[in-house]
Amino acid sequence: MPQKTFFLTRRYSWPMLVSVGFHGSLIAGLLFASFNTSVKLPSTPQPIQVMMVNTAPEEAAPAPAAAPQPEPEKVPEPEPEVQPEPPPLPKPVPVPLPEPKPQPKPKPKPKPVKKVEQPKETPRETAPQPTATPSTSQTVSRNAAPVSQAPVASAQPSGPRPLSRAQPEYPARAFALRIEGRVKVQFDVDESGRVDNVRVLSAEPKNMFERDIKQAMRKWRYEESKPGKDLVVTIIFRINGGAAME
Description:
Family: Belongs to the TonB family.
Domain TonB C-terminal: 155-246
Transmembrane segments: 12-35
Strand content: 15-25%
Main location: membrane
Largest sheet: 4 strands, antiparallel
């Protein structure tokens, strides 16, 4: 066993030494070559030639005179256009103003005159006419009956009796325009004495007094339990006398 190891060490030691020596010499050569190339010895100095140069500034050449610039051409100014004078305006024609009409001074509104109801006329009793007495020379037939004369019936007012009839107010528009009018209306009276179904038969002028008349007739009252139909009344409007009924 010790002999075997000895021979192995002798076998591998020489080549290793040769290899180490070769590589060491190679590395030393490379280091020497690199040092020789990088470091150079200075060469012998050469003489320096010196030349004297005059540094005085030379006189500058005079600059060439600038060429005169041409004067700009004068552009002729355009002549102003002469505008034609506008034609003279026509003189305004004076319009004649209408002469103001003298307005009549409004007369004071007259106080409404209360209508005095006339007392109801009582029918007069008619005296019976005396019968003619037959004469002695005339013979009266036994079969002839005595002739009796019928009594004369007294004229009585038909329809319900009015209890209160307020006069319609004069319309402000009609009073301002000094307009008078006449309206004829027809109406009915129900069981409670109220006015119903008012119809305007005629109106002069139209659409002036009808509204105020209908408003006033709603307040009229008649006797109860005495209905009436197709009653007619005419109402007259006058500036001086107000409203009156016919």
